[in-house]
Amino acid sequence: MDAVDVAVVDLALSGDAVRLDTLGTDAVEYPPRLRARLAAALPPGRCDTAELCQLDTEVGQAFAAAARHGLARWGGGAAGLVGSLGQTIYHWVDGGRCRGTLQIGQPAWIAEATGLPVISDLRARDVAAGGHGAPLAALLDSWWLAAVSAGSDQPPSRGTTVALNLGGIANITVASGPDVVAYDTGPANALLDAACLELTRGRHDHDPGGTLAADGRVLDGLLDRLLADPYYAAPPPKSTGKEYFNGDYLRTALASWWGDRPDDGRPGTADLLATLVELTARTVADACARHRADRVVVSGGGVGNRTLMSALARAVAPAEVVTAEALGLPSDGKEACLAALLGFLGWHGLPANLPSATGASGPRLLGSITPGADPLTLPQPHPQRPRRLLLGEVDRQLPTAI
């Protein structure tokens, strides 16, 4: 919830492949007040209908500004369509099943600002089909890794490659078997950010570069209590979010671990952050070990946390850790590239979920279309379902997705 990720991407269909060329990516920060209100709307906070309406509007306007920025900087002022994953405000999981999911950011504001059709609400159809609506990145990851494994111009892997995204929640994609497996492993930055907010009384909402955590020591007793959460042992498909791993969750865990000991001996900021870094590294490493990972390709905001990346490298060893750039995609902008890809597939009448990853009952077309300035004219559905993602130059006469 720190910023709006935007990517301008050229895409083209060719047989069983989608060719993708990233023209540019950026992160456009939310206005500070909007950012604070979004954080306050998450559980355990309350969000009434008036606040939800205002947030939906203001996030949509922030998305529109980010889209215009991307178009002006890399799109030459023009594009074919916009794909928007939205800002998740609530992901409803009950008894291991996703019952619903809500992403805000009214697409009409994007369409009005850009004149382009917008494909949004990309998770709901998968949920309606019995899936978790996440991680949708499994599609991009599996096609991308398939191209690498098939001997593209990217460096080959020695064995099983796992794609890892470190956002608020960590998720992995494994494409080495007959079916793609992908799921949320647990918190990445969610509890770290919650701890910063709690311990600094709202002055800081994250630990830049992991500098505070680097000065701390891991509290083994607290770590053991956190690792005992049943989510980590649950089989996939599964998903989670800040509805579960939030400030209340952290306060409850601390109170349970600390018990009746005096408050003046409670852990300091650095020790708590070091423990939460180790929690993320350990839970990701355990998941990667279950799939016998030889290489872990990391993307997301967590890449910028040097302390987390160091802990991850130690935890997954002897597996190799590389960032997404090593295989041709931007670490910070991969989720925005995913939004463009999902929108592009929906525009061409192609399913964009992977049932083996999300748990849906079958492939589904994803998203709802908001028209732009002109009447909608959809292309004929592509006759062949893509299975690979090729990175490189795309014919500039083809529509650009953002």
Automatic annotation (TrEMBL):
Coiled-coil intervals, chain numbering: none
Keywords: Kinase, Transferase
Residue spans crossing the bilayer: none
Sample GO molecular function, one term: kinase activity
Origin superkingdom: Bacteria
Pfam families recorded: AnmK
Annotated InterPro entries: Anhydro_N_Ac-Mur_kinase, ATPase_NBD
Region (Disordered): 365-385
Protein name as annotated: Anhydro-N-acetylmuramic acid kinase
Gene source species: Actinoalloteichus caeruleus DSM 43889
Lineage of the organism: Bacteria, Bacillati, Actinomycetota, Actinomycetes, Pseudonocardiales
